[in-house]
Amino acid sequence: MKIIFSIIIPILLIGFIVFDPFPDAFSEPTLHVDDLVVESYVPNLCCMITTMTFVDNDILFLQKSDGKVRLIQNGVLQEKPVLDVSVNSEGEKGMLGITSVGNSVYLYFTEAVKDGGESLGNKIYKYEWDGKSLINPTLLKELPSNVSHNGGVMVAGDDDIVYAVIGDTLRYGLLQNKPLEWLKGDDIELRDNGVILELETEKSYFAIGIRNSFGLAIDPNTGNLWATENGDDDFDEINLIHEKFNSGWIVTMGPATESQLESIPGYEDYTYGDPKFSWETPIAPTGLEFAKFKENNNYDNSLFVGDCNTGNLYKFELNKNRDGFEFASPFLQDNVINKNESLDEIIIGSGFGCITDIERGPDGFLYVVSLSNGIIYRILPTENEVNVESSENGGGCLIATAAFGSELAPQVQQLREFRDNQLLQTELGKSFMNTFNEFYYTFSPHIADYERENPAFKEGVRAFITPMISSLSILNDVDMNSKESVLGYGVSLIILNAGMYFVAPVLIFVGIRKKFQTNLTKLQEKH
Fold this sequence. Notes:
This protein is of the alpha+beta class. The chain has four domains: 2-18 and 391-509, no CATH class; 29-44 and 286-320 and 332-389, no CATH class; 46-143, TolB, C-terminal domain (Neuraminidase, 6 Propeller); 147-282, Neuraminidase, CATH 2.120.10. The chain is 26% helix and 28% strand. The protein has helices at residues 2-7, 9-18, 258-263, 382-389, 398-404, 410-421, 427-440, 444-453, 455-472, 483-526; strands at residues 30-31, 36-42, 49-55, 58-63, 68-73, 76-77, 83-84, 95-101, 104-112, 119-129, 134-143, 154-156, 162-166, 195-198, 207-208, 215-218, 225-229, 236-241, 245-246, 271-272, 277-279, 285-290, 302-307, 313-318, 325-326, 336-337, 347-350, 355-360, 366-370, 375-381. Helix 5 (398-404) crosses helix 9 (455-472). The relative contact order is 0.12.
């Protein structure tokens, strides 16, 4: 074993930097299936994160309490916000919704004269994304606000029309199905509350009668709009929203009785529809999204839904027409989960904290925003965790990724390819990785965190590892398919790296010192 470890010293040095066997998913949430895994994609996020959107492959997300929009690139939170606006974040106010169409980014927030100052109402702005900042804001909509029921989530449809939802803002009138005989004074005036809006069109409200919503999603197969809706003391909902839909609030939450149907006064040609699913005991459903995993089609007919009260993640199976759900349990076939009935069939995960958003990324994976945990989780098929993040003997290139700022950086890719295509192709290499992994994970996350916090240290790590990475290019054109070849090329790599990191600096130092002494001698002779 002594000769083995003497041969692999340079590989060990490289391993210190690149082989992280434990991705920073600390298994706080769990999934109750074997073919999907959840990982902590970006942890330690501050200031009450609410919603997120993808622009190309980057993530923009909102910090509710301080008015900032932050950028994540390749799993790394960037230091500076891309936008900072003044918000009132009292109660359910603040930075509430974000979505994008191409390089256009839409923001929904409670504007204020200054952070924490007097509210100027809920506003929807359209910005341009230039790759670094959100610029050129255009005000699209001014909406009422209140301490609660501001909604705020948005989603872009297949036709690039952006839908936005606002709750009833604790005020009731025509759009909240208030009985006509109860209307007085300004109750008759429309306040743009309790509705779903189509932005940048001349159309009227897409839907009315909504109490409060924290989730909108577009079915990628049909283009249909789905929404979650929070009830009062009972009955939360999932709704399929058609144009001119009336969700029934304040007359009803959950399936309507005959007397309730008769009590809905009606507004223009909006029509009521029962929810596609209801929880009798409120769980505060929030974000929802359709699965489309590229490497696993078991979930092509699944709708994932999060909640804020219990930290559960739910999975609903769509019927053939994708306009409702199918259940195996007889007690769920009325599309209601009543008190004391089991949730086992529909719960696919738990421990996520207060979920505020679920988005499907360009990679097909699901991204779950947890406000209470301050984490964006990523859900992916098990086989993708192996292929993308790790092999059986190693993990993501955590320290190198922090140094070069991206998992897709050429240097990181070269290191990963060396591990997978060269080192792990031999029994000796695998043996080394097994031994090395027991040690490496104890310190690598701390180094990577310090890199992100200290730019000077990050640059130092980058400068230190660049020559070592360059030396690996020698191994790209050789075969390391035997113990002898590993030993031979290992020795060569030791000599090369020793020369770069030790011999060369010593020779340079000696040369400089010799030249200094020569110049000093000449100077003394003159005097």
